[in-house]
Amino acid sequence: MSRTGVQAVARQRQMVVFELENELYGVDIHQVQEIIRVPAITHVPRTPDFVEGVINLRGNVIPILDLRKRFGFGPGGDDNDKRIVVVEMGDKTLGVIVDAVTEVLLVDEDAVEPPSPYIVTVDSQYIVGVARLKEQLIIVLDLNQVLSMGERDDLTRMEREKRADVDL
Amino acid sequence: MSTFELTPEEMELFLQEATEQVDTMEELLVTLEGGAGGEALDAIFRAAHTLKGGAATAGMTNTAELTHVLESLLDEIRAGERVADPDTVDALLDAVDWLRTNLRTIEQSGVESDADVTSIIARLQAPGADGAVSGDAVESGRGRDAADVAAEGAGARDEAAATAEGPASEKSEREAMAGDWRQVAHDAAAVGQRVLQFDLHIEAEAPMPSIRLYQALMVLAEHGRLLLVEPDQQEIESGVSDHREMRAVLVTGSDGETVEAALQEVSHLQSVRWQTLGVAEADGGVGEGTDPQGRVVADGDGTLQPPAPTEEAAAQPAEPIPGEGVQRAAAPAEAAVQRGAAVGAPPVADTVRVSVQVLDRLMNLVGELVIDRTRLARLGRVELPVQTLREELSHVGDHLSRITTDLQDAIMNARMVPLETLFRRFPRMVRDLSRGLDKQVNFEVVGEDTELDRAVIEHIGDPLVHMIRNAIDHGLESPLERQRAGKPAAGTVTLSAHHRENHIYIEVEDDGRGIDPERVKRSAIDKGLISPEQAAQLIDSEALNLLFLPGFSTSGEVTAVSGRGVGLDVVRRNIERVNGTVSVSSDLGLGTRWTIRLPLTLAIVQALLIGVRESVFAIPLDSVMEIVQIESSEVHTVSGRTVITGREQVIPLINPGEVWGESFRAAWDEEGRNHVVILQGAGGVLALNVDNLIGEQETVIKAIDGLGGQVPGISGASILGDGSVALIIDVTGFTQEVRELGYSVREARRRHDRSA
After folding, report:
1. How far is CA B237 from CA B58, B268, B269, B429, in A?
2. A56 touches B at CB < 8 Å
3. Which of these, B506, B508, B492, lies nearest to B450 by C-alpha position?
4. Is residue B292 pLDDT above 90, yes or no?
5. I need a labelling partner for B154 at 20 to 30 A (CA). Which of B73, B361, B435, B488 fits?
6. Which of A161, A133, A134, A17 is nearest to A85 (CA)?
């Protein structure tokens, strides 16, 4: 193999592309364990509203987050198209619900640009960059960032609010 | 040497059942001293009788005789002719030990052991005399009992006689090997194997010297390969020879001291001498000119006969048996302390009993798998529109994944063993220890029906042994010291198991002297484990955790019981290997508590399933006191909080919605009756309003990871039959939440029987 060939491969990455609120998002395939249909979800009390609940994934109970709610979008999307992207974060496994999973793409690193606040509707802290592919724009997410940030804080704040409600 | 008329399957069954009988006997014998009466005695008697019958049928005459004598002794106790004093129980326990060791011997070699059986029987017949019984008494006793047993166990004797012929047929092979032993010894020594020569002498007064020699020979054979036995092994085995000395050359992996120690269990042995044969000695002749090691009591003029290698020499491969010697050295016939200390981790049986129900479930699931296979195969053969095919495949896939999940659960379920299998051995250990250390111990066991994966149980055996030993040896004071401190003379050691939130807790607690954190700090500084500055910053609980540092041992003196080199750091490592943690807390002067915390992912709980809205919750059944139907007229309001009266007390009535939010609010029918579950957790009693009652189910508890924190009142999740997830209510945590809502939750006034 020629040297340039090696470099070309090294500068590409595989991305799982999914749809959310009519925009395309991509996550590095290494973060994704699998993609499943949405099964019956068991709701868990006193969790933030973006936590849909838990499901049984081959004997493991994993939490499911709704990415729409996480990003502050209203309800939407066709339930039949919805999928759960199962991601591994350290020793934890969890799933995120997305509107639809479109494809797996090979993207040149060069095609990923830093995020521009004008074209993106999601908080930029989760965003690695934007990939331009022909006509399409794909927002490249760091799922670890999306799912780990402030989760614990949210949960405890939630509890405090609930408690406050009841005490009134 | 002999083979019994048992198929391997029958043998396995015999061994399994015999092991259970022995376990039962041991467990109940320990209770005899504590004053357990007729029922325990009857149960021991039954176990002994069953064992005797089995052994006699299997042709295991020693076992049968021993159990027969044991039975007679039990009979005397039952008839009130004899008291179950500590000496008697000691003798009975020795017999049980012998039986257990013997079962292991049978399992390994297919032959029962002859070692020491006469002295055990003698002790049973005169407990307390401890070997002072004359040989004649032993013999007459054996004779009588043997006759009885022969009458009971059909053909046992005949078989034993038949087996005695075994070696004769191998004689020619043996003779063919004669003369070669020096060469073999030379070769073995040349490649660095240990070649030991033993010279044994039997006491002049001892009856049946050939039996003693035979026992010694068996011990030697267990340690390696016999190259030479003089006089001829066959002559010894025949039992008619009058030889009182024996020379044996052994190729072994054990060292001389170990084998010598093992030989101590052969009674009436006057002297044992041994020496290591090097290449030269093996070449030049036996033992001339080398310095004998070991003890010399009397010098015998051995009548050396032409060397004859034994059948073992011909039959066995050259490898010595490593580790065998160590195991032997730890065998019985030691003082109580050593015996107690020598009890390693009580072995967990390597078989698991599985209920027929579980087997049926596995069978059903496998049946389902076969159906899926057929469906898949069919899909490959028939012409179907793509859409239909896809749907079919997706159905089969879903079904398959559910079946395999169920299979996994069922298998995990089958692996679960109640902690009782481990705990049941401890009373015996505690008894031996306390007797050896002259301490009085009340040993209490709580929660032994808690289930754990057997793999986990195996890993916590050693740590628990260590902790219990520690509690008795270091934790408890002497009776005198205790009385001076105003405590009852008898100390209490409690071994308990329970599951709470996401974990199984196993605790060893004593009411002894406690651990002084300052002393621990000083000791750690002295050993250079921490600096004085670091020590000054430690709070007491942190100081106690220094105990788990490698190289730490609090006791100034090393005793036979606890100071055996294995430190608490090893305990901690063992427990961490199964993702557990261990901690210690102590109140100076009041006691110490060791806590092992194990992850719950493998644990199982019997649960009541209830429905609230579309959610299903599982409530651990041991927290459920009662299920009642309540009408609005039965509900009262006390300072703004709803209560019901029941169980002779006022119980707060909670709607899950109050704790968990509106989407978990159960309906309340003002006109009709409502389902209410009365729960009792560590925090008190409360009544929970639910929508419906679904049923009971054995549940595998799974941790919920990744939610970023503990959900209040939820301890984990469990997977239901349809593959969906039910949350498990942590009653203690839930009660805590309810209390924070302003309800007054009280402990139950008294203990109530659980009823449904």
Report:
1. 21, 17, 17, 37
2. yes
3. B506
4. no
5. B73
6. A17
Give the pLDDT mean for A59-85. 88
State residue A85's pLDDT score. 94
Distances (CA, A) of B714 to B39, B590, B592, B597: 43, 34, 30, 18
pLDDT of the residue at B146: 40
State pLDDT tens for residues B609-624: 999 998 999 998 878 9
Please give the residue of chain B at the shortest CA–CA distance from A92: B706
- What digits encode the pLDDT tens for the residues B613-665? 989 999 988 789 899 999 999 998 888 888 898 767 889 999 999 999 888 99
Angle at B521 between CA B519 and CA B523, to 5 degrees: 70
Max Cα-Cα span within chain A: 72
Tell me how far apart the alpha carbons of residues B380 and A31 are, in angstroms, rounded to a whole number: 34
B544 touches A at CB < 8 Å: no
B702 in A contact zone (CB under 8 Å)? yes
Choose, from B62, B102, B413, B470, the residue flagged as catalytic. Answer: B470
Can you give the pTM of this predicted structure? 0.43
**Predicted confidence band at B308 (pLDDT cuts at 50, 70, 90)?**
very low
Percent share of chain B, pLDDT over 70: 73
Q: How far is A52 from chain B (nearest CA, A)?
A: 11
Q: Which one from B17, B33, B49, B481 is the annotated catalytic residue? A: B49
Q: Residue B448 has what pLDDT?
A: 87
For residue A129, the distance in angstroms to the closest alpha carbon of chain B comes to: 26
Partner residue opposite A166 with nearest CB, options B711, B714, B741: B741
Q: Which residues of B479-513 are buried (b: 16+ CB within 10 A; e: fewer)?
A: beebeeeebeeebbbbbbbebbebbbbbbbbbbbb
Residues of chain B numbered 132-171 and touching chain A (CB < 8 Å): none
Enumerate residues 4 to 43 of chain A having a beta carbon within 8 A of any beta carbon in chain B. 39-40, 42-43
